[in-house]
Amino acid sequence: MQLAAAMSWAREPVGFRPIPLKDLTNSPSYRADVATLAAMFRHALESKRRGSLLAFLRFGVISWGRPDAIMDASTEVHRGQWHSAARAFALNPVGRRQTRKYRATVPVPECVAWWLDESKGPVVPQGLSKSTWRRMEVALGLPGGGQSGMRLVRRSVATIARKRLGEENWIQGRIMLGHVQPTTSDIYAVSDPAHLGRALAVTTELISEIETLAPGAFYRSFTAQADATEGASAARNG
User: Fold this and answer.
1) 163 φ, ψ to 5°?
2) What domain range is 55 assigned to?
3) Which of 126, 165, 181, 204 is disulfide-compatible with 109, CB 3.0–4.6 A?
4) 190 pLDDT band (50/70/90 cuts)?
């Protein structure tokens, strides 16, 4: 596909038909259940040095976002992402052009909004290294071969949510994932994240279930919030 694009740009005849990427990609089939997601949070909570991992997992469940969007998320005012009063988070910051991988604006459950209100700067402090993620995979016995990479949270949350939403309401899940993009109609009738009520309810329910199995995963009743802050400055790779 890249060769065909380059030849077209150079105004050279393309004598072959590029094979669409979707026909070549073998998407991972593994999905984590609620118990496994909770185990991932417990692993992150075991050490103050895993603060960035905890933040990544936490915001992954909250936003259903892609890893790149999670790493790019920030509460800095000039980024225009965290809208506290509306309890909504724009995964696409101000000034960034939307790409084919559309970043949605998603509702944030009230029970975890405190975390974003108190965050200063990047949601995942210091970023998250692949080695930190890989150590968690090994520690928990997650499948390798690309089955349990950083997109695992997004894929797992979406799968759990789809079962709970049902096909009639799955459109809300697709919007959360950024798979349904605004159309001309949305310019006239502006979309409101509050309309994603069913998806928000499912996310809130999932957060509660994970918190029950991994106390401190989301709620402030545990010292995890302080741990996350300390862990961010303790070590880059955690």
Assistant:
1) -65, -35
2) 30-234
3) 204
4) low
Class of residue 154 by CB neighbours under 10 A (exposed 0-12, middle 13-18, buried 19+): buried
In a domain, 180, yes or no: yes
> How many domains is the chain partitioned into structurally?
1
The tokens for 220 are 């402030």
Average pLDDT of the segment spanning 30-59: 97
Domain-embedded: residue 9: no
Please name which of 227, 105, 76 lies closest in space to residue 178, comparing C-alpha atoms: 105
Instruction: Give pLDDT tens digits for 101-153.
Output: 999 999 999 999 999 999 999 999 988 999 999 999 999 999 988 899 999 99
- Nearest partner of 193 among 114, 86, 97, judged by Cα: 86
Would the pLDDT of 188 be above 70?
Answer: no
Name residue 213's amino acid: L
Report the C-alpha gap between 190 and 187 in whole angstroms.
Answer: 6
- Quick check: pTM over 0.85? no
- Bin 174: left if φ > 0, else alpha if -120 < ψ < 50, else beta: alpha
Can you tell me the distance from the alpha carbon of 149 to that of 132, in angstroms, rounded to the nearest whole number?
Answer: 11
Q: Quick one: which H or E segment has residue 35?
A: helix 34-45
Signed CA dihedral, 133, 135, 137, 143: sign only: positive
Report if residue 214 sits inside a domain. yes
Within 13 Å and on the Cβ side, how many CA atoms surround 16?
Answer: 9
CATH number of the domain bearing residue 105? 1.10.443.10
